[in-house]
């Protein structure tokens, strides 16, 4: 799908705040509100905008603990990796999972209420995924930046 500069501007703006009205977006991009609505509909239909979500303030919901986890698998057979990917995708406490190069095979961002909940999650992960070789954990002491924004460059 070809993106023009209006699409690119729109994508940058809705990533920052998807709750903006078409009128507010139109003021910033210099298009009509109806043109903004058509473009958003097309971007959603084409899968450029995969979904929209609310970003919660951790302190307001009980201050969950964040863990960064590196996983190593025993064997990289496609069917075993697919099984692990499905498991990771279904687990609601795993915020993000990346298949990576380097010493680890996967890097996870996990958020749970406390270390007991983390221990239970990781025990289940190991028990239900026999291909897991080892994992290492880093506890996030604080959040410096959190988001999913992907900067969309504007055309020159």
Automatic annotation (TrEMBL):
Keywords: DNA-binding, Transcription, Transcription regulation
GO biological process, one term: response to amino acid
UniProt cross-references to SUPFAM superfamilies, sorted A to Z: Dimeric alpha+beta barrel, Winged helix' DNA-binding domain
GO cellular component: cytosol
Claim: Ribonucleoprotein is one of the keywords in the record: no
Pfam families per UniProt: AsnC_trans_reg, HTH_24
Origin superkingdom: Bacteria
Every HTH asnC-type domain range: 3-64
Molecular function in Gene Ontology: sequence-specific DNA binding
Protein name: Lrp/AsnC family transcriptional regulator
UniProt organism field: Sphingomonas cremea
